[in-house]
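Researcher: Let's continue the batch. This sequence belongs to Nucleoside diphosphate kinase, and it's 151 residues. Same format as the previous ones, please.
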Amino acid sequence: MADERTFIMIKPDGVQRGLVGNIISRFESRGYQLIAMKFQLATKQILEKHYEEHISKPFFPSLLKFMLSGPVVPMVWQGKDVVKQGRAMLGQTNPLTSAPGTIRGDFGIVMQKNLVHGSDSVESAKREIAIWFQDSELTHWKPAQNAWIYE
Ligand code: UDP
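Model: Same format as before. Here are the structure tokens for Nucleoside diphosphate kinase:
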């Protein structure tokens, strides 16, 4: 469905390395629609909700420290198959096994500093969008280019 949504977040390393424009541009050029975006320092509370499934893992304290080390860019993108396609555009969790052409495969080397987060299912996307955005922050608009992408 063309109204599928995913949660994509540029991590502090992506911001510090000046890759915000490049990452946004990949989603824009693919034809996906930006629905919401913020630029902010995350908090421990929001990250503990976001990474709920990882809280008891050994890498969590270090992941938390990294995610709090600078601003992040949380975003909502919309379009057909955007959850699965978004993950494919990111690459694998480990940048070293990510194909060139993916964000992590083009710009990353180590597991933690993999530049960007993307929801892994439609269900997680709904959960993550609700953690980072109020309903009123999700903007309704009709991109003029949609007819040239979908029809
Ligand atoms: N991570 C880490 N060490 C690990 C596994 C994961 O630092 O051994 C970090 C990495 O930044 C990753 C995030 O924790 O993106 C969340 O892990 P997940 O397995 O959910 O990977 P993702 O869905 O982001 O590919």
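Researcher: Any comment?
Model: The two ends are 13 Å apart (CA to CA).
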